[in-house]
Specification:
It is built from eleven helices and no strands. It has 322 residues and is mostly helical.
Amino acid sequence: MVMNKLSQLSGYSINEMENQEMMSVLVEEEKPMKPPSTTITSSSSPSSNSYAIWANLKPFAYGGAAGMLQYSLACFSHLLRLELLAMVNKSLPPSLAYYNAWLKQLPGILLFRATYTSMQFGSFETFTRKVEAGNNRMPLTLYQEACCGLSSGAIAASIGVPWLLAHGRVRAGGNRISILQDLYRKCADEGALAPWKGGRHHANYTILINVGMLTPYNRCFNCFRESLGLSEDGSTVGAGLVSGFFASACSLPYMNVCSTMMSTKPDANGKSPYSSFLDCAIKSLKSRGPLAFFTGFSKHFLKTTSPILILWSCLEAVRKSK
């Protein structure tokens, strides 16, 4: 009844009104859609690109800063210990020649620490990010973290081995030249690959240290912080101790087997009882048992864990100061 009155007033019948409504709906559906905006988003702006570059370089920068900070603290504690020992023993403090020789090696050591720790921590965080992205942002498994630690350890070893060998040669020569000068002479006299010659055992040891040091830290830090409710500093100390423990456990068996091979004298015919590293490890396992690989663990743990704990603490301090 109402619709009839409306149709009479408007001059349209009910059917015509319905047809008019349907046509309007069809016209609305046939309207072309608005094309997507072609404006440049903020993600492609220069500031966002520079931020993405810094996000990739930040782990390397933080690692290098932590390495130099750790060495600075180690040098200060070493010199302070020498002065205190001189006071206690009522002897002369280190001579001026000792400080001059130490200062002569300082630029090369700082360069090494900056390069070594930057590649150590930077490559590890880069690898973990890549693996995490492949896991659809799921946490890494222990096996994946170990593989990332192994890869970053290999990179760190490639940088650390030439310096360790050069440092040994310089100390044997009485510190008459710096480490950088020794590396330059080695490359000039014997070729570009000469600094790596004879560094196989150093490289293996460095890789094992890095695997044990890097693999458990993030997992233990999160466990101490979230599950046990420790503070950030307490979690750093706890995770650093666990990191040092596994670094000692991974590297000590290799050291003991190498020591066994080096200390064993050849027989009357000049033949060594061990044909290879693996042969020595198997024979040691059969003769002395698995605990023989961890002989001297407490001493090695204290020696290894102290610099690792300081290094992790320095890294966390650098991250907080950003």
